[in-house]
Amino acid sequence: MHLGDKIASSDSNGERHLADSPPGATDTEAPRLQGIDPATLQDLMSPDDVASMALENLRNGPTYIPSEHYRMVFDALLAMPRDDALTAMARTLQA
Question: What are the domain boundaries of the chain?
């Protein structure tokens, strides 16, 4: 189960690297379109920061988590049964 964004790159030796950045509060139009005030989101990150950090960490993959807050959220979701984790993620989108 994963709903993150993936960034792939190849190094000078042709070796492919993949970074997978789990979902989190990224300052895009999505929250506004859902009627969410971005000022209410915890640990909101700019898309440029998220992309830069993912690119900088391609060799540290396959999953890159941009903050300790999201590491805790990600670990909690992984510890849940799949159905419970999906339900919890769906609730955050409906809130």
Answer: 5-94
